[in-house]
Predict the structure.
Amino acid sequence: MLNNANHLKGLAIHATDGEIGTVDQLYFDDESWAIRYLTVKTGGWLGGRRVLISPIAVAHSDWPAKRLYVALTKKQVENSPDINTDKPVSRQHEAAYLGYYGYPNYWGGTFLWGPGYYPSGLATEVAASKETQALERIQKESADSHLRSTAAVTGYHIEAMDGEIGHVAGFFMDDETWAIRYIEVATRNWWPGKKVLVSPAWIQKVSWVDSKVYVGLYRDAIQTAPLFVDSVPLTREYEDRLYRHYGRPPYWVHEDEHKPVFSLSGA
């Protein structure tokens, strides 16, 4: 199911023994365009400290009630590595965080989440014996990171092959894989009032210095793309029309190749 990533902001995070806080920001990986962490404001419970929550921990989402339930205890969250979310999260910080919870490194495997294509099912119970392994993981990692905040990228200019077309207005994510499927583009003065969607697969590069996103599409193709309306649900029929318009293969064809096929015959 696709959801507007902006709707995650403010969602209440519930641990197995009580509420942790509310979602503040989202960090995504600018290589795979997957949301790797939620930053959570804990309020008075932890003195206003912000903590990271990985989608690996999410056990259940209740969008109508604006709640996410995580397979963590409040004590686990309280004792998690202290990370300053106002500064870039380094790969070493990530290694410390993932090692603490016993999660696999997502950058060390074949699939979107390392050993798996979905974050669910990757959580393991943390044992004290893993502390040494976690330390080794931290020491092996560099300070480089590919994490970006959706809040920081919102407002970036979108540059087509033949000129600017608008700016980043939002993101749409898959709540199973936690992959960002589309960037919402507000076209501003070029086509007043019109919004379009662009797949991260069509992005050539993101310039953090120039605050620009470069897409491998021409302006006329974007102008004639299916109109995106906020108030209308984002359906597979709309996605089909969008991909047919651009003559690009849809993401679900590629993903179907990676989904496991189970035999019920017992053979």
Notes: DSSP finds seven helices and 14 strands in the chain. Residues 2-148 form a domain with the SH3 type barrels. fold (CATH 2.30.30.240).
